[in-house]
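# step 3/5: fold
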Amino acid sequence: MSWAAARRALRVRLIAQRQALAPKVHAALSAAVHAALEARFPPGTVGLVAGYWPIRGEFDPRPYLIRTLAAGGEVALPVVTHRRAALRFRLWTPETPMEAGPWDTLQPVASAEATPATLLIPLVGFDAGGHRLGYGGGFYDRTLAALRPRPLAIGLGFELGRLASLIPRSHDHPMDVIITETGAFEPPRKPGGNSTEPRP
């Protein structure tokens, strides 16, 4: 099986496992992720935060985004402009008009564009090196490569997605911090690695 085919099969399996979680289990895991996220990064302390609109049983970051707004911070959501382009970001509040985006997501329609200091990034899978398995579109890798200064990349997911190794490629950008229901951990940083900004 090729590297790409193996990743596709892994992606399908992990998404199915996540969507099969009983609602009470998903809610309990999500509450633990929220608690770990707020403990490590209190709302309003990490600059302009870009979240995401959850799909396919992902951890839902919107309560954290709303608490960030309540703390006086700014929040943005990603906007897909082209399937091969980096993401762009528009400011968001719960009152912001939204439109359908790719893959059953929603994205702001016409709010002002913004450059995030922090990215909340959904995880399908992840490994100890902080490498992320997403949906295969490469949006976050392109975005992390394009944004200067590089935003703090916080991967959010559940322990069921933890893997021994994703065998990353050169274009894969590791997360700075990964947060699951067991807490937050910082993957080891390699000299000359992709992360160039100090962590808070």
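# step 4/5: annotate
Helices lie at 3-19, 23-40, 62-70, 139-146.
# step 5/5: archive (pending)
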